[in-house]
Structures are given as C-alpha cells and as structure tokens.
Write a structure and sequence with these properties.
Elements lengths: L2 H22 L5 H21 L1 H6 L3 H27 L2 H22 L8 H14 L18 H28 L8 H25 L2 H13 L1 H21 L6 H7 L3 H11 L7 H19 L1
C-alpha cells in the first residue's frame, strides 16, 4: 500500500466507526438505512449531473451489471447490520461484521490467481485480525463454544459480512474496468465519485424492494421519516463520504485484500466506542481480541 492509500483508509476507518456509533444509538432499521442511502446518493449527485454524458455513453454494460449486483450486497449489509445492532452490543456485532470479510476476500484473491500480490506478512495479519475478532463475543476465555456464536447478533453480523465481502470484490472489479476503459473521458477520482453515486442509487433501490415486501419494515420507514430523519441523513452522508475514500484508495494498491484488511482499523475504534460511549461491558476477551487485531493491522500495513 502507498502512503496515500494508508492515509485515505485510516481517515475512512475513523469515519466508519463514527457512523456506526451514530446508527447503533438509534436502534436502526432497514428504513433508517434506506433514508441514509438516498441521502448519500443526493450528496454525490453533483458528479452524476456533471458527468451525465459519461453515464449515457461511456459506462460498459458489464459495469452496469456489476452495479446492480453491488447494490444488492450493500443493501444486504445494511439490513443485516441493522438487525444485529437491534439484537445486541455494537462492541460484539461490529467486529464480527468487519473482520469476516477479510477471510472471504483473501480466499477469492487466491481463487483469482493473484496470490503473488499478497505477502506472507499480509496473511499473518489477516489471521491475527480474524482470530482476535472471534474472542470478542466471549464473556470469559473459557467460553469458546459454538453455542456462544449461535445467536441473532452473531448470525446477522456474519450475514452483514457476506454483504461487505460481496460489494468489496465487485467494486474492485467494476472500478478496474472503468479505469481501463479507453472511452472514459474523466479522471480516476471523478469516475470513482460517479461510481459511488450510482452504487448508492443501486443500494437504495434494493433496500426499497426489501422494505416493500415487509409490513413491519414499511412501518419502521414511516417512523424514521417522522422522528429520526435528520440522523439518518447525517449517517448517509458519513457512509458514502467514508466509502468514497475507500474507493479512491483502490487506485493506489495492487490488491483489494490490502484495503479490506487495513480498513479493520475501524474494529478497535468501534469496539472502544461501544465500551466508552454506549457503556457496553469491557470483558477481558473483548479487550484481548482488540489488542491482537492491532498487531495484525501493523503486520498488514508493513506487508
């Protein structure tokens, strides 16, 4: 990773932990994240207006298909994250949702034949990050049993992780295609912001579909619009500003595994925020897990 990529990802990690803290404090629903996603799209809409010719003529069909797919995975992430936050502590759900994608992306990287781009230190860092995260749900070190992970908080957090893995991998491929497209008349940063806007619109569409088929979700959306609209809007702006920084950083790395892995700096930040701000229990396994992850992050950064 270049120094610029590291800087962008570190800033995004702080912002990511921040918007998760804000949303957790509101007991979020799918409707909350629909409002947030639409707000993010509106924030990024100037890029859509400025580069409308690019949208109409220069984006390949394959990228449009990838946008449709990434929107689904992002919507899945939001819906499951909201459920995990309603079911349990942020300092448990957040690390699980953030750590598991590292394994998935690393496996996919190997399957795509890019193993030469990922160093041994990087893999060691990934193993430590994931190992540390699986200590976090425990109350005591002797509680390492499958039943301690068989609950709504852990299950929904892992489903959210599948969403994160999906959109991370798809975004990397879509942006590579955009940046190598000879018909594209705008720079990489402009193309990235345009892509982020289209992705927000795609995620909003899928979230709206999820909500349309559930009466409880429709009721939650009405409640958000009536009582919690401003915080949902603020969350949406933070979400897509955060992810725009991540998308830009992809232009300065050789492999998406580095970005997905190093973004896990947000894990100790989010865990600490849950303990200090939301007054969640600072169990010894939880704190040890955070420390192990920090070591893994250092290995990932220097790898």
């Amino acid at each position: 990773m270049t120094l610029l990529a590291i800087l962008l990802v570190v800033i995004s990690a702080f912002m990511h932990a921040g918007w998760n803290l804000l949303s957790k404090s509101q007991r979020p629903s799918t409707g909350f994240f629909l409002v947030a996603s639409i707000s993010g799209a509106v924030m990024l809409s100037p890029s859509l207006i400025m580069y409308h010719d690019t949208v109409a003529h220069c984006i390949p069909t394959r990228v449009w298909v990838l946008l449709l797919a990434t929107g689904f995975f992002m919507a899945l992430y939001y819906a499951c994250l909201a459920g995990a936050y309603r079911a349990g502590d942020m300092s448990v759900a957040y690390p699980l949702a953030r750590s598991s994608p590292v394994i998935v992306v690393a496996i996919v990287t190997l399957m795509l034949g890019r193993s030469d781009q990922v160093s041994g230190l990087c893999f060691a860092g990934i193993i430590l990050i994931v190992g540390g995260c699986f200590l976090i749900p425990l109350h005591r070190f002797g509680d390492i049993h499958l039943r301690n992970y068989m609950n709504a908080t852990c299950g929904l957090a892992l489903l959210a992780a599948i969403g994160t893995s999906g959109y991370s991998i798809i975004d990397d491929e879509a942006l590579r295609q955009l940046r190598t497209n000879t018909q594209l008349t705008i720079g990489n940063t402009q193309a990235t912001l345009l892509y982020a806007c289209l992705e927000a619109l795609s995620a909003s569409m899928w979230l709206a579909i999820f909500i349309a088929f559930r009466r409880k979700s429709r009721a939650s959306l009405r409640e958000v619009l009536q009582t919690n609209r401003n915080r949902a809007v603020l969350t949406g702006v933070a979400i897509f500003l955060t992810y725009a920084l991540v998308l830009i950083s992809l232009a300065f790395v050789t492999n998406v595994s580095y970005v997905v892995g190093f973004r896990q700096l947000s894990i100790p930040l989010g865990t600490i925020a849950g303990i200090l701000v939301l007054k969640e229990a600072p169990n010894a396994p939880k704190l040890t897990g955070v420390a192990i992850m920090c070591v893994g992050l250092i290995l990932l950064a220097i790898g």
